[in-house]
Every structure is written in structure tokens, then in C-alpha cells.
Amino acid sequence: MIKNHNEAGFTLFEMALALMIFSMVGLLITGIMFSVQRSWANIHKHSAKLDGFLKIERLADSTFKNAIPFTWTNDNLKEVQVFQGEPEAVTFAYLHRINNISAGAIRFVKLFVEDKKLIASYRNTPILFWKNDPQSDQAKREVLAENVEKISFDYADREADEITWSQDWDEENKTQIPLAVMMTITLENGTSERWLRRTAGSSYDTSLGKREYSVK
After folding, report:
1. Distance between CA 137 and CA 128 in Å, rounded?
2. Cα separations (Å) of 134 from 31, 121, 138, 139, 190?
């Protein structure tokens, strides 16, 4: 008696062909899932990076653009600008919206890198760099970015109607703050971003605080 194809079952060739098709489909699905996972990881990585840059952008707008001259009496009874500009850190006073009357409208901040993190340390009272106390219990710390390899600051001044830049701002010999501050951040992956902001009132013709110019 001759059996039809259905009764005889699948042949060896048909089984091999089916396994090959299933394998190809499985590999295709695995590849798609891996690609989606990698894309999601890249999106998450870039989103985290973008979020960090947005935080820095907001900080530059709220602090550098509102930086003001503010003096305090040091240990030698000399009036000194609270502004301290270093190559890898900066400390200054800036105008801040009034959240409550007791806090006032002036806030003090220090920006620096610690353990590969960009840190902003805030206080409602002056950060006196000559006392080396920015990490007091009164300071609120905020991590603005991680995986930071290096940070550098440049400070603008005007001499004989020309803008000059330096990486140090000698607070002992300055009666004013810089006209502008430029902050450069280099991440561990080698990419760099730069933020440049004028300080409060530092337009071409005016600035807060007395500023003397050389006469041609």
C-alpha cells in the first residue's frame, strides 16, 4: 500500500530546511533586539550628557550673567573682592531671586571639579577663599556633570579699549570683577564644551563697580 505525503511525515530535507529558516529568523530577531538595545543605550548616554550640559547652561545664565562685585574685610582688615578666579576653580557673588526674605538676594558659589564631577557649592553667606572654607556645613552642593576630565576658566578684562584674557584673577589687586567669564569643560571621552558669559552690567560702556581704563 502506498502512503500519501501527509501520512509519511516530513522528510529529512524538509526538517533541515525548517531548522535553517527558524535559525535565520532567530538570528534576525536577535540582531534586531541587540541593535535596539544598543540604540537605546546610546540614546540614554546622549540624553544624560545633554541633561548635564543643560544644567551647566542654566548655571552659566543664572550665575555668571548675574555676577556682581562684593567686598569683605579679610584678616588684615582690608576690603577684598570675594571674587576669586583660578585656572580650575572660581568663587564669586551673584544676584539671585528672593525665595525668602531671610536668605536675601545675593548668593555665593564656587565651581570646581572633584572626583571627576563638576560641583557647584552654594551659600547664602560669603565664601571667603582666604579662610579655605567653601565646604562648610552651610554650603549646598550640586553635581552638574560627571566623567569630567578637566575644567578651566578664563577671565576677561579691558586694557586700553582692548579685551584681554587671563587664567587668574588677582583679587588682591583688582577693584572689580571680570567683564566676562569663559568656562571650558573637557570630558573623559575627549570632547570639550565651552560657555562664555558677560558678568552683570559689563556691556561695552558700563559695568558694575568702578573700572579704570588706560588713556591713549
Report:
1. 14
2. 52, 7, 9, 7, 29
The total of other beta-carbon atoms located within 10 Å of residue 2's CB is 5
Strands (DSSP E) along 9-166, which ranges? 67-68, 71-73, 79-81, 84-85, 90-95, 106-114, 117-123, 140-145, 148-159, 162-166
Residue 79 φ then ψ, to 5°: -75, 120
Q: Is 145:185 a contact under the CB 8 Å cutoff?
A: yes
Burial class of residue 213 in the structure, from the number of CB atoms within 10 Å of its CB (0-12 exposed, 13-18 middle, 19+ buried): exposed
Q: What is the pTM of this model?
A: 0.69
Q: What is the pLDDT of residues 202-215, one digit of tens each?
A: 555 555 545 544 33
Q: Which residue has the cell 541587540?
A: 34
* Model pLDDT for residues 20-52, shown as the tens digit of each residue: 887 787 777 777 777 767 766 665 555 555 566
The SS3 assignment for 191 reads coil
| Cβ–Cβ < 8 Å for 112, 89 | yes
